[in-house]
TrEMBL record:
Enzyme Commission number(s): 1.14.-.-
The organism's place on the tree of life at top rank: Bacteria
Domain ABM: 9-80
GO molecular function: monooxygenase activity
Protein name from the UniProt record: Antibiotic biosynthesis monooxygenase family protein
Cross-referenced SUPFAM superfamilies: Dimeric alpha+beta barrel
Pfam families: ABM
Keywords: Monooxygenase, Oxidoreductase
Length: 103
């Protein structure tokens, strides 16, 4: 599903990853993080795909909303588990969306 976002500017957090062999608890945590993110002030939407490399893009109103999400205690625990169990490699990029178009 493609996220419905407001008129720019807004922000995108792009999370790319390569999974480890560990699956225990991953699907449940991913589902919980999507639900929790959706409850956060400033959250605008999310898009995700995985075929080899996983890419999740979450959209946010402003940098403050992104910082608050990063600092969320439950999200921090998911990050810790991800670093130690679920990901072999990951990268987070934050970008300001200046323009968008589509059909």
């Amino acid at each position: 599903m493609i996220a419905t976002t407001p008129e720019p500017p807004y922000y995108a957090v792009i999370f790319t990853s390569l999974r480890s062999e560990v699956d225990a608890g991953y699907a449940e945590m991913a589902e919980r993080m999507l639900a929790l993110a959706a409850e956060q002030p400033g959250f605008l939407g999310v898009e995700s795909a995985r075929e080899g490399v996983g890419i999740t893009v979450s959209y946010w109103r402003d940098p403050e909303a992104i910082r608050a999400w990063k600092a969320n205690l439950e999200h921090r625990e998911a990050q810790r588990l991800g670093h130690h169990q679920w990901y072999r490699h990951f990268r987070v990029r934050v970008a300001r969306v200046e323009r968008e178009y589509g059909i």
